[in-house]
Fold this sequence. Notes:
By secondary structure, the protein is α+β, with helices and mostly antiparallel strands. It has two helices and two strands. A two-stranded antiparallel sheet has the order 1-2. Helix 1 (about 40-55) runs antiparallel to helix 2. The N and C termini lie far apart (about 35 Å).
Amino acid sequence: xxxxxxxxxxxxxxxxxxxxxxxxxxxxxxxxxxxxxxxxxxxxxxxxxxxxxxxxxxxxxxxxxxxxxxxxx
Length: 73
């Protein structure tokens, strides 16, 4: 099994961190959703992407389908 770790930082300009990351080593899948700091709802958008991608299966074609699904939310 591959060991991995993730960290995200709000940086110097923001009061909160809007980024999300997803680590699924059992599926060989890692993703970062950038919250686009400064834009309203950035933390919500990145959470939607993370939650939607977390349902990925082993088929790489699922990535495109899940990203399109995340855009519908």
